[in-house]
Amino acid sequence: MPEAPPQLICLIMRIPFLSPRRPVVSVIRLQGAIGASARSGGIGLSDTALAPLLNRAFKRRRPAAVAIALNSPGGAPVQTSLIAARIRRLAERHGVPVHMFVEDVAASGGYWLATAADKIWVDQSSVIGSVGVISSSFGFADFIARHGIERRIHTAGTAKSWLDPFRAESPEDVARLHRLLEPIHAAFKDQVQSRRGALLPGDRDLFTGEVWVGQQAVDLGLADGIGHLEPVMRELFGKDVQFLTYGLRTPFLRRFGISAGDVIDAAAERAAFARLTPGG
């Protein structure tokens, strides 16, 4: 069969529906604490906020892969579980591999999200892990007693005012709290083991809440390699890969100012990042 003349080949290349299809990679950025700003109508990482974005990223233009740039210190465990489960459902339904690229932090719920990917990539300085559950508060019992303040509270139900910060902590309340934390921790461990189990060392407890940096996480099987989003995707799918970026939309009223709720959420989120990321 004779070859087509060069002029015809050039013409075909210029016709969109006859041109060779460039591979597409959908790019999503997940930034911030999970569940943050949900109460104030913000744009925190919640399943409700992310569902439309994730659906588009997995369906539109039949992507060769979904690449997620992740930077999160964790947050609400239920929202974490819902988002991770949604990512896995979409990946399996559409047959699209997921690559997670950790930036500064993927700790606690942030690492739970990372395990939803088929491959986890980190920077040399990324903080990874914190597979644990935490509950923190303050106690003011001695302070109010010292200032002659009397706490008055009445409940129907003996456990209704448990862990009241204005009363002395009781062993019964602490035991009740641990009964809540342990099942969440067990679910977290199950998630990591189901997604990363074959890669984890059998002689090391990785579920203590400890964190690791970059290559340490790779060596322990918590991540797959050191790499950044664009060069890794080009290496895997070719230099002509096309990136389609998807992001959360800022609510209309948020474009004109910041509410008090946003300030509180931002302060809490900053504190969570600060606890996990050493300054340069």
SSE blueprint and pairings:
Elements: H1 6-14, E1 24-31, H2 47-59, E2 65-72, H3 77-94, E3 98-107, H4 109-114, E4 119-122, E5 127-129, H5 141-146, H6 171-196, E6 211-213, H7 215-219, E7 225-226, H8 229-237, E8 242-246, H9 260-276
Parallel strand pairs: 1-2, 1-8, 2-3, 3-4, 3-5, 4-7
Antiparallel strand pairs: 5-6
Helix pairs in contact: 2-3
Structure, explained:
The chain has a domain at 24-132 and 185-249: Alpha-Beta Complex (2-enoyl-CoA Hydratase, Chain A, domain 1), CATH 3.90.226.10. Strands 1, 2, 3, 4, 5, 6, 7 and 8 form an 8-stranded mixed sheet that branches. Helix 3 (77-94) links the parallel strand 2 and strand 3. Helix 2 (47-59) runs parallel beside helix 3. It is α/β, with parallel strands linked by helices. It is 39% helix and 15% strand. The protein is elongated and about 95 Å long.
Tell me briefly what this model is.
The protein is α/β, with parallel strands linked by helices. The chain has 9 helices and 8 strands.
- The dominant shape is elongated
CATH superfamily of the domain at 24-132 and 185-249: 2-enoyl-CoA Hydratase, Chain A, domain 1
The helicity comes to: 25-40%
Main sheet: strands, sense, barrel: 8 strands, mixed
Estimated structural class: alpha/beta
The appropriate CATH architecture of the domain at 24-132 and 185-249 is Alpha-Beta Complex
Low-confidence stretches: 38-42, 252-257
Query: What would the average pLDDT be, to the nearest integer?
Result: 81
How are helices and strands ordered from N to C?
A: HEHEHEHEEHHEHEHEH
Level-1 CATH class name of the domain at 24-132 and 185-249: Alpha Beta
